[in-house]
Amino acid sequence: MTYCLGIKTKTGFIGIADTRITSGSSTGSAKKVYSINEGQQSFFIMTSGLRSVRDKAMTYFREEMEEREEPFNKLYKVVNAFADQVKQVAREDKKSLREGGLSFNLLSIIGGQLSKDEEHKIYLLYPEGNWVEVADGSPFVIVGNNGYGKPILDRVINYDVSLKFALKAGFLSFDATRISANDVDYPIDVLYYEKDSYKIIERRFEEEELKALSELWNENLSSSIKQLSDSWLDKLII
Fold first, then answer.
1. 3-226: CATH, from 3.90.180.10, 3.40.50.10420, 3.60.20.10, 3.40.50.300
2. What pLDDT is stored for residue 167 in this prediction?
């Protein structure tokens, strides 16, 4: 499957995307993030779903970007433009995919800040082409395999946390998913954006670079469980 995460805080946003792809019994690696940094136009698109649908929609979108005379000035316009391409691919391929037993399941996280945006934003785009904006009260979104990593974020993430805290929590969320699901894995692409900077920093991390952090988290988690009071267990003893 996929693990793609976007977290918005008051000072910026972070993003994490794994690179594992599966086809039948075989696995491989492919980039799931597309990002732009041009003047006051900084945004990214992360996707989860059929690779063929993603590639076709992204090809159409890139072509539109190249042919535009004026750049987008608000992020929601980028979202609408990509949604148009997703809907175009649906018109072309959805029926044949369904006949082949496949679902048109492209989900996208789109985040950034453009020249006329008052602040950075993150949107969740559905396969049907409709979207919702990630709100301050619920400042993160996951597409793909979200069952294992979401509880960590539910406990610790809010709009006021620092970007570094958000990135550490986001990594632990990915790590929990990686351990429990065999369709999510390294390397991971990490995005880091500070409000009003118009510059998304992108870096790829291999497993060896973060192995020590994962092991430390495992040790701390085990230690914390051992330190929890077990007096309540006395009620089980008759």
1. 3.60.20.10
2. 98
